[in-house]
Design a protein that fits this description.
The structure is a homodimer of 295-residue chains. The first copy, chain A, has 295 residues and is of the alpha/beta class. The first copy, chain A, has helices spanning 14-25, 39-47, 58-62, 77-84, 102-111, 156-168, 178-204, 209-214, 218-223, 231-240, 242-265, 268-286; strands spanning 4-10, 29-35, 53-54, 67-70, 93-96, 119-120, 122-124, 145-148, 172-175. Chain A has two domains: 4-176, NAD(P)-binding Rossmann-like Domain (Rossmann fold, 3-Layer(aba) Sandwich), CATH 3.40.50.720; 180-286, 6-phosphogluconate dehydrogenase C-terminal like domain (6-phosphogluconate dehydrogenase C-terminal fold). Chains A, B: This is Prephenate dehydrogenase.
């Protein structure tokens, strides 16, 4: 792979910091420059050896940059792109790590319209219990998936540069359209988060909440683990991807209406058939076996 | 505590087998007799040292028995009680390990109406990934909760015998009415199971199921872990507790309707407030801190 002479990471937290650490460990990068909202975060990133220096501004950051990773919460994308656009020069490849892609692509088109050949949106499917640069580690992306959603305008060389960088981090790179990405992740990630947040909020608002929580056990713990996720990040994801998320929510409400009718009718056979199908699919998935398409 | 001279376990699987192993390890039991649907299971239980002998039938099992634990799936309760009732003698205490309590209490009243002074329904809040007697282990109940739902007729000495047995297993015993039990577990256990089964079934039935599952990650894994639970057991629980479960499902559907409206309106502040409240409650619970009652 081509060496990245100068890497710029905008938003040096768990995601951006781990990308920097992984590339450095792979010997794939020269100098790593950080930029972001909060000076103290960047200073900690320097002290921890995650970045080499702090950019004074976008002009400074983009001067001679080979690759820029945008890794701030997606709600900040517009403001970041507006600030960086005037200083972006041909040959600097721009990618991102946002959990939604249609809104990021729209923002990229609106702000970097003249530079789309060097723009390659992406989404690493990785996270950890903790966030922030202190939680960053070089192995975060080992064996994890990264979805690239290149634009029709993206140059093959730019796509390759982003692919090489993620593969140097140990990730498996796959491609999708932004539309496909947002539909898939609405189903397998954004909806489950919404459902878990909703269940905990529902119970926490009851007058007997202490009694309820005191009897919750390991099933509840696992089901609601994602309700401990970052509210601002998930607000941004839900709002950005609300069209696809509403479609998934409505499909799920249809499923719940069917289950509700089985409960009303005491239809044990119907419930068992649903549970059996779900268990079979879930266990096959957990064991890495192929999931069969519904007949 | 009073020693249990002869213990009868009906249904020697994970739950019944672990109860037997724990009492034996505590030196709290003399002879352990197993009874159940399938001879080969009882023979394995003997071979594993979980029980000492296999009863030839209920007359044999109940002869001189101090304590009977019913630990078969709740759907079999009626048939089991009908078979055992003619052979039950005064002084033998009967308890169970069913996940629902109102239906078990109704069955106990209907079949053991003359012996209710010695009947103490219960529910150990414990389980494991695997089921069956091979999965049984003496430490299953260490530090776990066991809910007793004594009847108005239950003698204090019978309640104490059941409490002593569970405490000898290392469990923390609490008391509730059967109604309260079923409402609490509908909220913190039965509804989450229904929701997880429903989500996996919804996705598994799509034409693009293989694509969806191939991008599911750790959040999905935890959220859906309980969708790998036993379909027959959960069918019985859902049917037995469907009144309380329907109340919980309807409350949750109200919560989802509110979240849906926030998505439709792009109400990021509203979503963030829900997510923040959920995260605070979930993290407090996970850290063992008190859950505050809603203002």
């Amino acid at each position: 792979m081509a060496h990245i002479g100068k890497l710029v990471v905008c938003g040096v937290g768990l995601i951006g910091g781990s990308f920097a650490l992984a590339l450095r460990r792979a010997g794939a990068v020269g100098r790593i420059v950080g930029i972001g909202r909060r000076r103290e975060v960047l200073e900690r990133a320097c002290a921890l050896g995650v970045i080499d220096e702090i950019a004074e501004g976008w002009a400074d950051a983009l001067d001679g940059a080979d690759l820029v990773l945008l890794a701030a919460p997606v709600g900040q994308t517009d403001a970041i792109l507006a600030a960086m656009a005037p200083h972006l020069r041909p040959g600097t490849v721009v990618t991102d790590a946002g959990s939604t892609k249609r809104d990021v692509v729209a923002a990229l088109r609106s702000h970097l319209g003249g530079a789309l050949a060097d723009v390659v949106p992406a989404h690493p499917i990785a996270g950890a219990e903790k966030s922030g640069v202190e939680a960053a580690f070089a192995e975060l992306y080992m064996g994890r998936k990264v979805v690239l959603t290149p634009l029709p305008e993206s140059r093959p060389e730019a796509v390759q540069k982003v692919r090489d960088a993620w593969e140097a981090c140990g990730a498996n790179v796959v491609g999708m359209t932004p539309q496909e990405h947002d539909r898939v992740f609405a189903a397998v990630s954004h909806l489950p988060h919404l459902l878990a947040f909703g269940l905990v909020d529902d119970l926490a608002g009851r007058s007997n909440a202490p009694l309820l929580f005191s009897h919750a056990a390991s099933g509840f713990r696992d089901f609601t683990r994602i309700a401990g996720s970052h509210p601002e990040m998930w607000r941004d994801i839900c709002v950005a991807n609300r069209v696809a998320l509403l479609e998934e929510l409505d499909a799920y409400l249809g499923e719940l209406a069917r289950l509700r009718m089985m409960l009303v009718e005491g239809d044990g056979d119907g419930l068992e058939a649903v549970f059996e199908r779900a268990r079979r699919a879930r266990n096959a998935w957990a064991e890495g076996l192929p999931i069969r398409t519904a007949e």
